[in-house]
Amino acid sequence: MKFDYMVGAVIHDLKNQLQTLQVCELDAMQQIPARYHHLLKPIVQNTNRLQNDAMQMMTLFRLEKAIDFPFDDAWPHDTALDAIESMQIQFPNIKFVNDIAESIQGVYNDDLLQLALTTLITNSAQAGATRIRIAADAGDNEIVWHMEDNGHGFDQSVLNGEQITTKTGGSGLGLYLVDLIAAHHKADDQQGRISCSNLPKGGAEVRIHMPQHALG
Asked: Could you tell me if 106 and 78 are in contact, meaning their C-beta atoms sit under 8 angstroms apart?
């Protein structure tokens, strides 16, 4: 087996073990008295963070190796709801708003879009956001996802493309991964992309543009 595929197998195994650990932790939360939950919450939150990191590494590996992701009918409202629910334990002090109409439907990889949204949620939380709104518009054979927060916003150097991040110790991996996920969704002459801006009243917005019926 080639070394890079061995690395991929190890990451995949790590992801599965972390999923098992998450189940055990949630079961423990249900078994112990509520007055002790605060002792377990930091462990659960850190496990969730490691699980998200493992998912990012596995996805980057598969995208780099051009391994196919299945595309199917999906509903952005449900995708956003699943992403929000998976992050509420990690960020209990953030108010999440899902403003996506339940009628909007597309063809895309639901797991990839959930990962894109959870990655953006993490970025917003690190920027000090206490409120995150997710919306989506559909039209002209395109879905545009909107992730808005009330955090510190983007530094102008990031918006100008001069830097990929200004966070202390930041790598810029988050937006890079989201852009890769968007670009993986293609149809005819359309290809997914992201765009970023600061909101007039403060905070940041990231938009994911993708074909409504992606072919991969």
From this structure: no
In the block, residue with structure tokens 């002790």: 36
> Are the beta carbons of 172 and 165 closer than 8 angstroms?
yes
Report the range of poorest mean pLDDT among 13-27, 74-88, 171-185. 13-27
Q: How many CB atoms lie within 10 A of CB 214?
A: 23
Q: Which helix (H) or strand (E) holds 178?
A: helix 173-183
CB atoms within 10 A of CB 120: 24
Which pLDDT does position 69 carry in this prediction? 85
Contact assessment for residue 157 and residue 163, using Cβ atoms and an 8 Å cutoff: yes
Cβ-based burial of 20 (10 A; exposed 0-12, middle 13-18, buried ≥19): exposed
**What does the DSSP assignment read for 65-123?**
TT-----EEE-HHHHHHHHHHHHTTT-TTPEEEE---TT--EEE-HHHHHHHHHHHHHH
Residue 70: which residues within 8 A CB-CB, separation 6 or more? 109
Structure confidence by residue, pLDDT tens digits, 22-57 = 788 878 888 989 888 888 888 887 887 787 777 787
